[in-house]
UniProtKB/TrEMBL annotation:
Organismal lineage: Eukaryota, Metazoa, Chordata, Craniata, Vertebrata
Principal subcellular localization: mitochondrion
SUPFAM superfamilies per the UniProt record, alphabetical: FAD/NAD(P)-binding domain
Keyword RNA-binding: no
Family statement drawn from the similarity comment of this UniProt entry: Belongs to the carotenoid/retinoid oxidoreductase family.
Localization: Mitochondrion matrix
GO cellular component, one term: mitochondrial matrix
Name of the protein: Pyridine nucleotide-disulfide oxidoreductase domain-containing protein 2
GO terms assigned for molecular function: oxidoreductase activity
Assembly information from the UniProt record: Interacts with COX5B; this interaction may contribute to localize PYROXD2 to the inner face of the inner mitochondrial membrane.
Chain coiled-coil ranges: none
Pfam family, one: Amino_oxidase
Keyword set includes Aminoacyl-tRNA synthetase: no
UniProt keyword annotations, A-Z: FAD, Flavoprotein
């Protein structure tokens, strides 16, 4: 249990609760859920520019990272088909993957196919079911994809001014504006209470909020004097109590709750809002293909990691279909912007390619 680990090392409850947010981020779990300690380890085990446990912003936004990867691939001769949805994986008579068919009827032939989509989309939607072992299909269907995350993107006409650290008179960003700001995290009991509400189908009345202001470091993201605020919030259930839909009324009601909480820490925040974009778990699934809205393509619980990700006997990036590989967050070592799954899958695919 993460709570026990933090109790051994720290005395400050706000510090323990702030660290605990990285143990439950993206997970339908509380700091008291068995195995939650691993998720914290997963988020601090890496490094950035040689600094252990550090995270960073991508200049010009996360899309710039995708563009950089695309340019590197194109420089090596890759052909990129943007806005071209894949219909299904093409299989030969011998059962090997031979490429993909696009929804417009185009067939792209290849000796190897690497899928960055979730295991659910890759194997339950894009691959002929009769070509897969029944126990494998059942395992993929049983992967826990519950997600507590609602992402809210906000445009504001001025920097938030927090009671704990008011803004400077010139309105320029201060050091804390350039960091990750955690709200409603004064105690781990608050996180557990927010989690419990969601398990009963109700959005948290005092949600966990991780607030970032990337424009404080990258002014080109917003007009002069304005800023973009990224809110990573939980807990919100994928399915609301009583089967109620996540309609505009429900989405706005939850966002209002989040904004009321921020207002308590930074008076004037709500008046500074120019626009907001609310992405609930169903929105994250529909727009980005994340099963259940899960940002990791599946829970990072101990029963779904290492040799069991995405399924026992298939943790080495190969799939039951020869020539078809899984290279996204649903493969080992799981979620996070690190590229480890893709790099590992590429090495396995290249090894197989040399033996074709």
């Amino acid at each position: 249990l993460l709570g026990q680990i933090l109790d051994q090392w720290f005395e400050s409850e706000p510090l323990k609760a702030t660290l605990a947010t990285d143990a439950v981020i993206g997970a339908m779990a509380s700091p008291h859920t068995p195995g939650s300690g691993y998720v914290l380890l997963h988020h601090v085990m890496g490094e950035l520019d040689g600094q252990r446990g550090a995270w960073g912003y991508v200049a010009s936004g996360m899309g710039a990272l995708s563009q950089a990867i695309a340019r590197a691939a194109a420089a090596q001769g890759a052909h990129i088909f943007a806005e071209k949805a894949v219909c299904h994986v093409l299989l030969g008579r011998d059962g090997r993957a031979q490429g993909v068919a696009l929804q417009d009827g185009t067939e792209v032939r290849s000796k190897l196919v690497l899928s960055n989509a979730s295991p659910q989309i890759t194997f339950l939607e894009l691959t002929p079911q009769e070509q897969l072992p029944k126990d494998f299909v059942q395992r993929i269907r049983q992967v826990d994809t519950r997600s507590p995350v609602t992402k809210i993107n906000v445009a504001v006409d001025r920097l938030p001014s927090f009671l704990a650290a008011p803004n400077a008179h010139d309105g320029q960003p201060l050091p804390h504006h350039q960091c990750s700001i955690h709200l409603n995290c004064e105690g781990t009991h608050l996180l557990h209470r927010a989690f419990t509400e969601a398990t009963h189908g109700h959005p948290s009345s005092r949600p966990m909020i991780e607030l970032c202001i990337p424009s404080a470091l990258d002014p080109g993201l917003a007009p002069q004097g304005c800023h973009v605020v990224s809110l990573f919030t939980q807990y919100t259930p994928s399915v609301l109590a009583g089967g109620q839909p996540w309609d505009e009324q429900a989405k706005n009601a939850y966002a209002d709750t989040v904004f009321d909480c921020i207002e308590a820490y930074a008076p004037g925040f709500k008046a500074s809002v120019i626009g907001r974009d609310i992405l609930t778990p169903p929105d994250l699934e529909r727009i980005f293909g994340l099963p259940g809205g899960n940002i990791f393509h599946g829970g990072m619980s101990l029963d779904q990691l290492y040799f069991a990700r995405p399924a026992p006997s298939y943790s080495g990036y190969r799939s039951p279909i020869p020539g078809l590989y899984l290279c996204g967050s649903g493969a080992h070592p799981g979620g996070g912007v690190m590229g480890a799954a893709g790099r590992n899958a590429a090495r396995v695919a290249l090894e197989d390619f040399r033996h074709l």
